[in-house]
Design brief:
The complex is a heterodimer. By secondary structure, chain A is α+β, with helices and mostly antiparallel strands. Chain A contains twelve helices and 16 strands. Chain A folds into two domains: about 200 residues, 3-Layer(aba) Sandwich (CV3147-like fold); about 130 residues, CV3147-like, CATH 2.40.390.10. Helices cover about 35% and strands about 25% of the residues of chain A. By secondary structure, chain B is of the alpha/beta class. Chain B is globular and about 80 Å long. Classes of the chains: A alpha+beta, B alpha/beta.
């Protein structure tokens, strides 16, 4: 895959919005940054993990803060460059490649921008294959790669180095630092080896993200419905990938609530016509569970996306409105995400659901 | 007495009003120079009513002139863009996402300056006053006359934008200055874009407003001149010269406000059926419900509070295909309905022909549609009502039936009860609802900021912001007794600890007018 034009950047951001499954932060700011790099002729290079040497040095970059603050602060390329310089200096080695911790939302698009800026490759993989609200909710963490040392920095020259006893604590400490610095800071974290990335990452998600964005745009033009193209791309049982349109209807009720700075919501939809089917999607920053007439049809970590029923434009939790015509898509999480040790961290139980995880392809035959 | 004028893309409408009474109304074609169409429409209502010009104390104008100029890239001025935020935001300079043709007109005059505040209002970097002075001299030397100034979190702290303006005025008193906090809310890119759009239109707005003033002189009117803004409230002509961007969605707003005024309803769905499209919106507290989702003006991303309007491809000129199934629209004969529709001697079957054939109205020659069979008529009517019902359903916020108001020339298309509607209103003068909306005569203010209730407590913070909103309305000419807060919206913010809230307060009052 190559990202060389404004259109490519937009395709990437559209894919990131879908894989953000309702949250992940607006990719627009990341899109603008990546666009700047591309217009300067600095194109991001994306490589497969298999191209890495086992002892290659890899880190992640991500923003930590509040989405409404991000859209005022925007981004500083100088800061991101300095963050990488200081992380290299602290670690005592050159970083060979970057990996995005989170494909959905802002972080993947921003990491592509940093890769372009520093002319180092970005690995075609991430740590979740979607978006999650906390930095310990990544496969890297599950398999023993520590988030620490986390290098945190802001544009004013403030920085902190977090060594936490576990990744959950790293999340708490990082968020506290972010709060004390105007609620938006940037971090470099999860130093890993090439071998660890090969073994523990969710693979091929950058190229998937780009293909999704591109497929939606192209099939709006070439197909009867953009969903035809999307299903062709995402439903490939022989590759252990499943995708189903779970529902087609309109939003009839929305409940939002912010508790402890997390966004909880319940979205109720009714089908068109006389069938009177009801779909309820529960969210905590991201869409987590979809229930059709009370029966679970998709549950975390499998992906739930809500899209405009005509244009297939992904709709985030904040953009939902009464009366919108939507289609709800269920997409299977990557097999690694469904392993028991991963489910223990970000399966249904990790979000307070009482039920066990069941794969989408079993729930909707 | 007062005159309301609505300058649309096709027609310029005028009404003469006294209190809540419509004394006369007129429709004239909009002209290239705008002013002569306006003169013609005002002359028509004056002639129709024999009202002495000395009795007219106010003229209120709703106009799409500025938004159209921007969309068509006509009459725009180059703009110097100053952003106060460094060292933050450096990676995403102004104008990065603007279309190339617009950038060519606006130019590449970007000045990024140190200074800024956090969302808490605390200063993270003092203002670099020397850099601003230097920029001002440079801008002056380039011969640029419009500046857009944006500082980070300006909706919360205005002082850096104001101080920068003062420094620039000292050096270049002739400069037209737009401050972002006056035209936009939170989201730096979108607010900055709004400020740049405004700055690019300022010279045009000064010329246009002065031509409106001259029109009044030609007509021998010594009335006060007002312009309607996006939310339907008025601004003085002097303020309008400074903030043309605040008029960009006045068209649909005025039509909805007029519908509310004519029926006395404060909460209702408004369906404005024109020649090609129908606009469906929702009145809440007598004002259009707004959306501040990202929207696009001439290819530029903004987040204005705009009336939340759904346009569907259905109007009096919509073409009807008599296949199976029968379809209506979205293609339309538009303004050529008077030659194309069957009842007017044309050969295109339109929605208006269906309404005539069904006996819903008496327009043109009914014999021209006598051959239509009952089933086709019935199916076309099904389709028309179905489309409108779908749009109504999308615009409602709950499943409960609500009152609906039909305005616009195409209202005759509707003949049946509509699903989801409790009662259907068709007010008199529905065809000029937009000009009536312009003439309602209220002023308003809105304040949006991030607050922390903390030790001061929620009630005290809300009161403080409300008092400020009320004071702004009175300062804008509102009669103190009539000013009230019409909307308080609190939104908790994700990923922020403590009790941070985005608080929006809107106040409205009647404009002091002698009637």
């Amino acid at each position: 895959m190559e990202i060389r034009t404004k259109q490519d950047v937009r395709d990437m951001a559209r894919g990131a919005a879908l894989l953000g499954v309702g949250g992940g932060g607006d990719p627009y700011v990341g899109q603008l940054m990546l666009q700047q790099e591309v217009l300067k002729g600095r194109y991001p290079r994306v490589i497969k993990a298999s191209e890495l040497a086992d002892d290659a040095k890899v880190v992640s970059v991500c923003g930590i803060g509040s989405p409404p603050v991000l859209v005022e602060h925007l981004l500083s390329s100088k800061l991101l460059s300095k963050l990488m310089d200081e992380m290299e200096e602290y670690l005592g080695y050159k970083i060979d490649a970057l990996i995005s911790a989170e494909i959905g939302g802002l972080n993947s698009v921003m990491t592509l921008g940093v890769a372009a800026q520093r002319d180092i490759p970005l690995i075609d993989a991430d740590g979740m294959g979607r978006a999650f609200p906390k930095l310990e909710m990544v496969t890297f963490s599950v398999y023993g790669c520590s988030a620490s040392p986390v290098m945190i920095m802001d544009e004013l020259g403030n920085s902190a180095l977090v060594h936490a006893r576990n990744d959950e604590t790293a999340e708490h400490m990082s968020r506290a630092i972010s709060s004390s610095l105007g609620a938006m800071v940037y971090s470099s974290l999860y130093p890993m080896s090439g071998k660890q990335v090969k073994d523990f990452a969710v693979h091929d998600t950058i190229s998937l993200c780009f293909s999704i964005g591109k497929c939606i745009r192209e099939s709006r033009e070439d197909r009867d419905s953009p969903f035809d193209g999307l299903l062709e791309l995402l439903h490939r049982p022989d590759e252990q990938r499943h995708c189903k349109i779970l529902f087609d209807g309109k939003i009839v009720d929305l409940k939002h609530e912010i508790r402890d700075a997390w966004h909880f919501g319940t979205i109720t939809m009714e089908s068109h016509g006389d069938s009177k089917d009801v779909m309820v999607v529960e969210m905590q920053n991201e869409y987590l569970a979809a229930r059709l007439n009370g029966e679970t049809v998709t549950i975390v970590p499998d992906l739930i996306a809500i899209l405009d029923s005509e244009s297939a434009e992904p709709i985030t939790g904040e953009q939902l409105k009464y009366g919108q015509r939507v289609k709800v898509l269920g997409i299977s999480a990557s097999p690694i995400m469904r392993r028991p040790e991963c489910l223990a961290v970000f399966g249904p139980g990790g979000f307070g659901f009482k039920e066990e995880f069941r794969p989408l392809e079993e729930l909707v035959a | 007495m007062r005159i309301g004028v609505d300058v649309g893309g096709t027609n310029t409408d005028a009404v003469l009003m006294q209190g809540s009474q419509v004394l006369a109304s007129a429709k004239c074609p909009t002209t290239e120079d705008v002013a002569s169409g306006m003169i013609a429409a005002i002359e028509a209502v004056l002639a129709d009513s024999d009202a002495p010009t000395s009795e007219i104390h106010s003229v209120m104008v709703g106009t799409t002139q500025f938004i159209n100029a921007f969309v068509e890239r006509k009459h725009l001025s180059p703009v110097a863009v100053m952003r106060i935020a460094l060292p933050l935001s450096e990676g995403i300079p102004p104008l990065v996402d603007w279309p190339d043709d617009l950038r060519a007109v606006i130019g590449d005059h970007i000045y990024m300056v140190k200074g800024g505040f956090y969302y808490t209002g605390a200063e993270y970097m003092p203002l670099d006053e020397e850099a601003i002075a230097e920029a001002a001299r440079d801008i002056q030397a380039k011969g640029i006359r419009s500046i857009a100034i944006t500082s980070i979190f300006a909706p919360i702290r205005q002082d850096f934008e104001e101080r920068a303006a003062a420094i620039i005025r000292e050096i270049a008193p002739e400069m037209n200055i737009t401050l972002s906090h006056q035209v936009g809310g939170l989201n730096l890119v979108e607010r900055e874009n709004a400020a740049i759009i405004n700055a690019s239109l300022m010279e045009l707005s000064q010329r246009a407003i002065s031509s409106y003033r001259k029109s009044l002189e030609v007509l021998n009117l010594s009335a006060n001149l007002f312009v309607t803004q996006n939310d339907g409230t008025l601004m003085s002509a002097e303020v309008a010269e400074q903030s043309p961007v605040m008029t960009c969605s006045a068209g649909p707003t005025n039509s909805m406000r007029g519908a509310g005024f004519l029926t006395g309803l404060k909460e209702a769905v408004v369906i404005d059926i024109g020649g090609t499209t129908s606009d469906v919106g929702f009145l809440l507290h007598g004002f259009p419900r707004e959306t501040s989702d990202a929207n696009d003006i001439g290819g530029v991303r903004t987040n204005f509070s705009m009336p939340d309007v759904l346009s569907i491809g259905l109007g009096g000129g919509s073409e009807v295909e008599t296949g199976d199934p029968v379809s209506v629209g979205p293609s339309s004969v538009g303004y050529r309905i008077l030659e194309k529709a069957r009842v007017f001697g044309g050969d295109v079957l339109t929605a208006t022909d269906i309404a005539v054939a069904a006996g819903q109205c008496d327009i043109g020659d009914p014999a021209a549609v006598a051959d239509l069979d009952a089933e086709t008529i019935d199916q076309a009517l099904d389709e028309i009502h179905h489309k409108i019902e779908g749009a109504i359903d999308r615009m409602k916020t709950s499943a409960k039936p609500v009152p609906a108001i039909l305005v616009g020339g195409g209202h005759v298309l509707v003949s049946r009860p509509l699903k989801g509607v409790s009662e259907l209103h068709r007010p008199e003068h529905a065809g000029v609802a937009n000009a009536i909306g312009a003439a309602i005569g209220q002023v308003g203010s809105r304040i949006k900021r991030i607050v922390e209730y903390g030790s001061q407590g929620r009630d005290a913070v809300i009161k403080e912001v409300s008092d400020q909103a009320i004071a702004e309305v009175i300062a804008a000419g509102g009669i103190p007794d009539t000013v009230k807060v019409v909307e308080i919206e609190e939104m908790q913010m994700t990923y922020l600890q403590a009790d941070s809230m985005s608080l929006k307060v809107r106040a409205i009052g009647d404009l002091a007018l002698e009637d």
